[in-house]
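[Meeting: bench + compute handoff]

Bench side (C.D.) handed over the final construct sequence. Compute side (W.E.) agreed to return the predicted structure before the next meeting so the bench team could plan truncations. Sequence as handed over:
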Amino acid sequence: MRTAGWLILSVAIVAGLTVAVSRAAEELPAPSTEANAPPTLQPPASSVPVTPKDAAPPPSVTIIGASDAHGVLGRDVLSAANEGMGRIVDVIVDRSGHVRAAVIDFGGFLGVGSRKIVVDWNALRFGKIASKKDSITLELTKAQVAAAPEYKEDAPMVVLGASGSLQPLQAVQ
């Protein structure tokens, strides 16, 4: 009885494979007599390159020397009296992409008790920032910054500026 079971199973497997192979053979295209023929030479392509209609123009390239520009995020900010004011944690731009202000994480100790305030970009002085250890100077006193309202994302912001330097944000239409 055991042998008969194995025989039936073997016949079923062979029958299934035969059906699968015959279906695969039906789906294959008929062999072409051109498959063995040598390839024919195509006419040479035109010498003018063809570009798609939506192809972007090549990007422009500007080279900025390593000593000419530096990042500002995470930089320490000091007052003119060399008091620690915090670190720049964000930059605020208007709709046209012009930098308007910097968000400074002010006060606290190791991030506890600190708050974010917004200062006008023109109130910052970049002087010597040759390395990541160099700080940025803010033309405001520690008392002025401490009195500034806290910055909250997606809420109207009060931008603290140096005397006479803040310009109102114009609505872009």
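W.E. noted at the follow-up: The CA atoms of residues 56 and 95 lie 24 Å apart. C.D. will use this when planning the next construct.
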